[in-house]
Design brief:
Structural class: alpha/beta
Number of domains: 2
Largest sheet: 5 strands, parallel
Shape: globular
Distance between the termini: 23 Å
CATH topology of the largest domain: Rossmann fold
CATH superfamily of the largest domain: Response regulator
Number of strands: 5
Strand order of the largest sheet: 2-1-3-4-5
Order of helices and strands: EHEHEHEHEHHHHHHH
Length: about 240
């Protein structure tokens, strides 16, 4: 696996890398110690399986910088590791698209479990932040029984919107490779076997791809891919 570790303290970076080697002894690392080196290292072709980022490096403005980073690289899987624990910051970090927020005060085993959870396709949120989840909008009223009995008809495909075109261009080469296999009907297990990676790695890439494309499942992602291909582009 390949990780991006960003923190302005070398000791912290060493500790995080040591922790990540507990997940993959052969892990590879890119490192950053400020905003400029982070922005440069986050290039899509680096194919990072996960970025672990501190918000308080030189040149960074907290969650605002994180928002800018993920806007430029929407397919980057990212977890924040921070000494700052205000609920407002947690909300901003999660709203920016981070897959997790891990306070630096947490013991190593908790950090490891949090990272493993994200790599398995989940998200880690500290218990203090659970109350920050926005309530879901009310479910639409149920249709009359007569209407519910009618067979549903799929809507015709819609042309790929400009913002989706931009997001598709920003998928990393590894994520495009995964989506090619998804488009062929491969399961996560089949994709993992084909790419010689862990199934959890495939899951986290898919969760990031779905987030980047603004969809919630494979079928919606495939619909977008079909729209992309119909423009004459290659995946």
């Amino acid at each position: 696996m390949k990780f991006l570790v960003a923190d302005d303290h070398e000791l912290i970076r060493r500790a995080v890398k040591s922790l990540l080697r507990g997940i993959d002894p052969d892990a590879q690392f890119d490192e950053a110690d400020n905003w400029d080196t982070l922005a440069a290292a986050a290039r899509p072709e680096a194919n990072h399986d996960l970025a672990i980022v501190d918000l308080r490096m030189s040149g960074m403005e907290g969650a605002a910088s994180l928002t800018a980073l993920l806007k430029a690289h929407p397919a980057l899987p990212l977890v924040v590791l921070s000494a700052e624990e205000s609920v407002e910051e947690m909300r901003a970090v999660l709203a920016a698209g981070a897959l997790g927020f891990v306070p630096k005060r947490e013991p190593a085993n908790v950090m490891l479990k949090a990272i493993e959870l994200v790599l398995s396709g989940g998200a880690y949120v500290p218990i203090e932040a659970l109350c920050l989840v926005e309530p879901h909008t009310a479910a639409p009223a149920r249709a009359p029984a007569a209407d519910r009995a009618r067979p549903s008809v799929s809507a015709p495909p819609v042309a790929l919107a400009p913002h989706h075109m931009h997001l598709m261009k920003n998928l990393s080469p590894r994520q495009r490779e995964i989506m090619r296999l998804v488009h062929r009907g491969c399961t996560n297990k089949m994709i993992a076997r084909e790419l010689l990676v862990a199934e959890g790695t495939v899951k986290v890439h898919l969760s990031v791809i779905f987030r980047a494309l603004g969809v919630h499942n494979r079928s919606s992602a495939i619909a977008l891919i079909n729209g992309w291909l119909e423009t004459g582009r290659e995946l």
